[in-house]
Amino acid sequence: MSHPGAAVSARSAGARSLIMRTAERLYASRGFADVSIRQIGEAAGQRNKSAVQYHFTGRDELIKAILAEHAAATERHRFAMMSPLGDLAELSLPDQIRCIVLPRIEHHIELGSPSWYGRFLAQVVVEPALREYALEAHLNTPSLRRLYDAIHARQGRGRDPVRGARREAMIRQLVVHMTAELESELAREQPAAGVAAGAWRRLGADLITATCGLIGAMDAEEAASG
Amino acid sequence: MSHPGAAVSARSAGARSLIMRTAERLYASRGFADVSIRQIGEAAGQRNKSAVQYHFTGRDELIKAILAEHAAATERHRFAMMSPLGDLAELSLPDQIRCIVLPRIEHHIELGSPSWYGRFLAQVVVEPALREYALEAHLNTPSLRRLYDAIHARQGRGRDPVRGARREAMIRQLVVHMTAELESELAREQPAAGVAAGAWRRLGADLITATCGLIGAMDAEEAASG
């Protein structure tokens, strides 16, 4: 049953989504310092100068909405990957790490090229006022929490919470910033979609290899130091 | 022999340095988006509204000057560490990695608390317009180039330049962003100087362990895949 309200809210959802895509692109390519809320509205073709405020109240809510949308898409990939696996504590370290890394990679392949989210997120996590939003929305979800806990608990290692937090931080920094770095490269080189997907999968494999090596070395050091 | 010109240029150097310290602190704590050149001048106690432009011409030159100063200090530590070591290619991987990581750590211990440079640099490297300055000034110096080349050349491994570049990027991202993360933590917790120095040394040791594990795993994967 179609009614005028439905058309209005579809148009509103369209404008909202368009503003989010535009903001992400402008922030990713020019940084937070060089992009105003008003420029985002204009670049998104909104004639009303307060369109961004109308849809999001302000910059921070706009940024949270972008983070939440990508986090939800990434979580869908992670859920699909984790649900057939059973008890996470029974998985090998590489399989646990795969569940952390590959949903991010799959999300980027799905986004296609050019994407902007990788660079957007890398800027959010170093911006003092925004960092917590990224951690809450995307980098410390319940599924990631369970994975990290399983990694820390395996074989009774990683019991020191400070060392556990450091391992997590290293994995998070590698995933966030290497993703942003590949995204920049692909934006410059503009390869065909298949080549880009291959580059994302290569990054995924490298991150899994590197992370397993990193954790193995930290575990060995912890075991040796008692 | 003292003359009026010397006093003027000492005052000018003092103002220049004060502006740099102030800019670093404001950018680190509030991000590039929330800090104007004029606010930096005011916060540095400059009565002339164009003081920052007078000393640096503009934001980018100010940022380059801050990067160059810290890069020079870090290089002094690296030079002191490397000069007695002889042929870099003869060093073990952990010793090569130590020469990459520890000069950054020593520089932070020397800066004392609170420091701002770690967070400043992390923001610079993700800011599209500034990233290249950081790479040129600080993250790709001749001494680092020699160290990375020695790492790639050892035992004939790491010959694939794409894989070599990825290893380097991972090490760089870990060092830059883990340094910023510890700096934030210390700024929040404000421990005594000795405790802070211990935390920096612990991070240095963890980065060396993690990086050696990461490179070892990437090498093994490369050797296995031919």
Automatic annotation (TrEMBL), chains A, B:
Residues 19-66 form the HTH tetR-type domain. It holds the Pfam family TetR_N. The keyword DNA-binding applies. Keywords: DNA-binding. This is HTH tetR-type domain-containing protein. It comes from Nonomuraea rosea.
